[in-house]
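Give me the fold.
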Amino acid sequence: MGPVAALAPLVAVLALVVAVLALPPASAVFTSTTANPANTLAADQLQPPSGLTATTSCASSTIEFQGATSARGSGSLTLQTPPETRAGDLLVAQVSNWGGPATLTPPPTGWNLVRRDSVNQVNQVNGTPQVTSALFWRVASATEPATATFQLAASVDTAGGIAAYRGVRTTSPVDAHHAMTGSSETTTVPSVTTTVANTVLVHVTTKRQEQLPAPGGTAERWRLLSGTGTSIQGVSAGDVSFAGPGATPVRSSASSSNFQAEWIGQTLALRPAPQQPAAILTWTASPSSWADGYQGRRLVNGTVQGSSTVPMGTTTFTDTGLVNGTTYTYRVWTHDGTWVSTEQTTTLTPSC
């Protein structure tokens, strides 16, 4: 073997040693990769949305007038149920009588007294009551009677009417009510303060010996006298929507004959029925703005009830068809094709 051939293995070994020494330690390789802002691991990680919350929405229905009837009587008042009435509608009745609060026998089944007001003879604090007006409500049934008779214990003139409304809350339907009395040409119906939005105001007037138009700005539903002669009263009713909540306007009904006499003005506000509760989901957008969007699920007791997908850029979603008192779990995550992030979770128990 010549000298050159003998040195060849040694040269190869030295070259390998130099190559090993040129490599950085393992920790240096890991540090340089993870510290690199543009490393592919960090760039490719699909981030979830954050701050997922769920709140209840209790949108209310719109109250709609259906129909009205009116009548007069003596010692009692028989009112026909408006023919447009359906089960679940709210019926509002006015029953007025000449003189004081002649004792009513128990009202027809299902009718509930809201208020009853009388006005005394003018300038007499303890004078004889001149006219009286009572307001009642009832939820119509599937077998609603054709008439309702309100019986008094005295044979006095009576007059009034029934109006039917759809979309009213069937439990505690009256949000607020109030009355005013006086003696003048003009009758005033008072303001009330509503606690919910989208009520309907029913304004009712009663005046000795004169029928007044429905208060200004309302749709008239009835207007009539209880009879002829002097021992009579006139009644009227009108309604109007009120956005609210808050204080309602004071309205008036003016006499066309300038006749001054005792009067009663009554106001009640009908509360709209709540629709099915809904959940409003909101979240903060995922930093992975290049993803396709978000997917979500609604679960009850671990069972999936529904799922939805919204595009990237969306940070809110409304889920309808909920039931009061049921606890719902919502899960939302980011997706890009079949690639998904971790989930964000929140719960909601609606109560409307």
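Residues 64-270 form one domain.
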